[in-house]
User: Which sequence fits this backbone?
């Protein structure tokens, strides 16, 4: 669990983070989103205890970072964007070195190394030199290294950078697995399309402030407003329009293609389900029906537009 209250970080006369608060529960993957200079890295460094905030409270697990920084290091695993690598080591030797640094008993190291090499998909590369690995494979290796001490909280800076599409799918599955194990994961990334798949919740930062945060669905609804529903039917347009006109929560129909329509709707899932049931009961041959999902790119751009205005 990560809990931040009223965090402020000043660099001389410049305020990098202003009165930021957030809470990330166990089993969550939280995406920290923002443009360059928004304060993401400063926020992560403060949570890690790498810099002293001007004021504010930071709790990681059950540890107050400012009061017990050494204890906090034992519950946090950090994966930086461009970590240094020992290129003349073999993959398993690289992990064995860090396992020794983490005081993992020698007899336990082979099993732990095998477990995490399988988890990150590098088992077949266990005898390759680190210097021979691609950028994406290096990212996987650093993630495996970060997991060796079994940290309660994981903080990942641009973990999908340099990964091909297949590797990004693997990363998404790894993060889901870690969340299912009860880990708290904080991810900072600029690849917003991937963040929507990785994360259960997000926070959008602008100019040092947390503009909006919550589950992906909550943030999308808060920023984008009413849901837009897409529907495709076969025929019976008049009967379809008649049923739609009687739904008080539905906005005007917009025809977007042959037999395809879109409309805004301010109801939740139960109200949408009732509308679909009325259409089917009314004899409307519905081919497809569902909310259009706004990507985090659209949400982020709209938040940015509000900030500029």
Assistant:
């Amino acid at each position: 669990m990560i809990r931040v209250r009223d965090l402020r970080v000043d660099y001389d006369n410049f305020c990098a983070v202003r009165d930021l608060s957030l809470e990330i529960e166990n089993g969550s993957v939280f995406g920290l989103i923002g443009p360059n200079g928004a304060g993401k890295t400063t926020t992560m460094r403060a949570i890690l205890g790498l810099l002293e905030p001007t004021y504010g409270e930071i709790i990681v697990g059950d540890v107050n970072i400012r009061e017990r920084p050494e204890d906090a290091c034992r519950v946090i695993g950090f994966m930086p964007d461009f970590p240094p690598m020992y290129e003349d080591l073999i993959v398993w030797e690289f992990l064995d070195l860090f396992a020794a640094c983490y005081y993992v008993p020698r007899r336990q190291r082979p099993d732990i190394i095998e477990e995490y090499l399988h988890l990150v998909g590098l088992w077949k590369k266990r005898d390759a030199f680190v210097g021979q690995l691609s950028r994406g494979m290096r990212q996987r290796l650093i993630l495996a290294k970060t997991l060796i001490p079994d940290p309660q909280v994981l903080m990942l800076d641009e973990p999908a950078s340099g990964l091909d599409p297949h590797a990004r799918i693997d990363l998404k599955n790894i993060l889901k697995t870690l969340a299912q194990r009860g880990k708290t994961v904080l991810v900072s990334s600029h690849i917003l399309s991937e963040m929507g798949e990785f994360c259960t919740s997000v926070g959008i930062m602008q100019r040092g402030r947390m503009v909006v945060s919550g589950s992906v669905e909550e943030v999308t609804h808060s920023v984008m407003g009413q849901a837009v529903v897409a529907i495709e039917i076969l025929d019976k347009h008049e009967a379809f329009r008649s049923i739609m006109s009687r739904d008080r929560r539905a906005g005007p129909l917009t025809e977007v293609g042959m037999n395809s329509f879109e409309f805004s709707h301010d109801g939740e899932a139960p109200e949408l389900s009732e509308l679909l049931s009325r259409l089917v009961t009314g004899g409307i041959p519905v081919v497809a029906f569902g909310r259009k999902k706004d990507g985090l790119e659209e949400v982020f751009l709209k938040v940015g537009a509000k900030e500029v205005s």
Observations:
- Confidence is low (pLDDT under 50) at residues 305-309.
- Residues 165-180 form the longest helix (16 residues).
- The first strand starts at residue 2 and ends at 11.
